[in-house]
């Protein structure tokens, strides 16, 4: 049995210790906001916050997540209301198919925690591990800039 | 084909001593940040052996500053390194390498120890640590030993680490006041991609001559390499166009780059010469 803490809630799962955190979130806990793109650490669609810092859940064996505060996209909204970063992605057209969006939003959260008023190069670096194949990065960067202005 | 995770065992003993005792029983593979191991698992090329986690060990994650050296725990992440004010100021080659070792998410998980033990010839920290003449501390259930980092890499993905041993820490001397440093990585996507070629260089100029020089390189041979012949061609010389030509020739003679999916040997050798020349030109200004 492995005990997890996700978005502030405790969970207990009975899974092999090397099962990827990504698969445990999706298959065992039905937290399907986290997506699988590449499965190799290249695309960021499986991003989670791992004790507050951005990490790719496809590269984390679930046992290594025990005792860690995990944050997923499901924990970002405030009740039924979108968080400011989510609202900005919506308004700036920073999402299309949505596969990359949970990861983009968590990467943005991590970036703004560290640099509340990021420069464009800081935004580009902070999101460089998150690939989007439809929206185009300029709208995504605009969403991040809008979110920073609200902070 | 992805491997079936259920076929792998993974344990996380509470202390370093417990981990070392586990490793002493034989057959266990350590896993730190997992950014190499988990990719191998996904690709179905991770040998089916039990694993022991290092990630939770606070004993391996530290940066200590003494008068003579920075001592960095093997479990220290690239994010820890690049955001450490002392390292960023005093060891720009290492802080620079940390800042372009994959994405931010990769830097938050990947460790310096994992980078050295994985021992890819293209890895980013080795050239810097070769130039800085780092010293490794290795530990096992039976004791510890130190070794100059220049003696650690033995061949393609082959290191001097013995079964049951872990890298405990990496010590880098603090003697670089007055040195000029240069590092550049050339890859398809700059920071994000594994390098096609990278150099990390340090030099001290006295009376218009090169009084000391250290050059570490990635992807110029089957393992990370210190460019000894190039260094001797430069030592004691003024930075003139003849010196640059001699140094380029020496580098071409000692480089044994490989052809692989990322690039060709000829491209690597040519670009390495260009980087060297760029560094030498900066020295003469
Ligand atoms: C998307 C992506 C991009 C990347 N980009 C780069 C890049 O630009 N440059 C670069 O150099 N690398 C890059 N890497 C590779 C990787 O992130 C680094 O090599 C990293 O340093 C590995 O550290 P880790 O802790 O994650 O290793 P792990 O996967 O945990 O382990 C790697 C190896 O080291 C061993 N090991 C780990 N710690 C110890 C120890 N203390 N003692 C003994 N053995 C140990 C393990 O048994 C294993 O063999 C990238 C990886 C990914 C997935
Ligand atoms: S699925 Fe994890 S980084 Fe692409
Ligand atoms: S919105 Fe489709 S991948 Fe980014």
TrEMBL record, chain A:
CDD domains, A to Z: fer2 (cd00207)
Protein name: Carbon-monoxide dehydrogenase small subunit
Pfam families registered for this protein in UniProt: Fer2, Fer2_2
Domain of life: Bacteria
Record key words, sorted: 2Fe-2S, Iron, Iron-sulfur, Metal-binding, Oxidoreductase
Entry's Gene Ontology molecular function annotations: 2 iron, 2 sulfur cluster binding; metal ion binding; oxidoreductase activity
Matches recorded under SUPFAM superfamilies: 2Fe-2S ferredoxin-like, CO dehydrogenase ISP C-domain like
Organism: Granulicella rosea
Domain 2Fe-2S ferredoxin-type, chain residue ranges per copy: 1-76
TrEMBL record, chain B:
Keywords for the protein's UniProt record, in alphabetical order: FAD, Flavoprotein, Oxidoreductase
Matches recorded under SUPFAM superfamilies: CO dehydrogenase flavoprotein C-terminal domain-like, FAD-binding/transporter-associated domain-like
SMART domains: CO_deh_flav_C
Coiled coil spans: none
Keyword match Flavoprotein: yes
Start and end residues of each FAD-binding PCMH-type domain: 1-177
GO MF entry, a single one: FAD binding
The keyword Oxidoreductase appears for this protein: yes
Classification via PROSITE patterns: FAD_PCMH (PS51387)
Top-level taxon: Bacteria
Any Pfam family the entry gives: CO_deh_flav_C
PANTHER family assigned to the protein according to its UniProt record, in alphabetical order: XANTHINE DEHYDROGENASE SUBUNIT C-RELATED
UniProt name for this protein: Xanthine dehydrogenase small subunit
Organism: Granulicella rosea
Lineage, opening ranks: Bacteria, Pseudomonadati, Acidobacteriota, Terriglobia, Terriglobales
């Amino acid at each position: 049995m492995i005990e997890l803490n996700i978005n502030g809630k405790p969970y207990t799962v009975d899974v092999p210790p090397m099962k990827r955190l990504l698969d445990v979130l999706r298959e065992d806990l039905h937290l399907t906001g986290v997506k699988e793109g590449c499965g190799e650490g290249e695309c960021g669609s499986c991003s989670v916050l791992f004790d507050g810092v951005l990490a790719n859940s496809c590269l984390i064996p679930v046992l290594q997540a025990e005792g860690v505060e995990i944050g997923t996209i499901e924990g970002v909204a405030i009740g039924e209301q979108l968080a400011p970063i989510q609202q900005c992605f919506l308004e700036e057209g920073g999402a299309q198919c949505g596969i990359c969006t949970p990861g983009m939003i968590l990467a943005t959260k991590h970036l703004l925690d560290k640099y509340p008023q990021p420069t464009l190069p800081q935004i580009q670096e902070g999101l460089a591990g998150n690939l989007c194949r439809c929206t185009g990065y300029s709208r995504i960067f605009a969403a991040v800039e809008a979110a920073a202005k609200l902070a | 084909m992805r491997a079936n995770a259920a076929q792998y065992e993974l344990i996380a003993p509470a202390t370093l001593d417990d981990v070392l005792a586990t490793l002493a029983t034989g057959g266990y593979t350590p896993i730190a940040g997992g950014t190499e191991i988990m990719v191998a698992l996904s690709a179905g090329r991770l040998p089916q052996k039990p694993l022991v986690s290092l990630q939770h060990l606070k004993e391996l994650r530290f940066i200590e500053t003494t008068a003579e050296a920075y001592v960095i725990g093997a479990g220290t992440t690239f994010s820890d390194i690049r955001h450490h004010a002392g390292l960023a100021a005093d060891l720009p080659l290492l802080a620079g390498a940390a800042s372009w070792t994959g994405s931010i998410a990769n830097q938050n998980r990947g460790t310096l120890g994992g980078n050295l033990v994985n021992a890819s010839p293209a890895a980013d920290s080795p050239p810097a640590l070769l130039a800085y003449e780092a010293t490794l501390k290795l530990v096992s259930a039976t004791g510890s030993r130190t070794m100059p980092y220049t003696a650690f890499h033995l061949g393609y993905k082959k290191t001097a680490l013995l079964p049951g041993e872990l890298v405990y820490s990496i010590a880098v001397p603090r003697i670089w006041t007055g040195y000029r440093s240069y590092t550049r990585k050339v890859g398809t996507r700059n920071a994000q991609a594994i390098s096609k070629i990278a150099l990390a260089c340090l030099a001290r100029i006295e009376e218009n001559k090169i009084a000391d020089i250290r050059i570490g390189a990635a992807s110029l041979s089957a393992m990370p390499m210190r460019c000894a012949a190039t260094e001797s061609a430069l030592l004691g010389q003024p930075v003139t166009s003849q010196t640059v030509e001699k140094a380029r020739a020496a580098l071409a003679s000692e480089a044994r780059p490989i052809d692989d999916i990322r690039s060709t040997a000829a491209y690597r050798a040519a670009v390495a010469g260009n980087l060297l020349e760029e560094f030498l030109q900066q020295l003469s200004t």
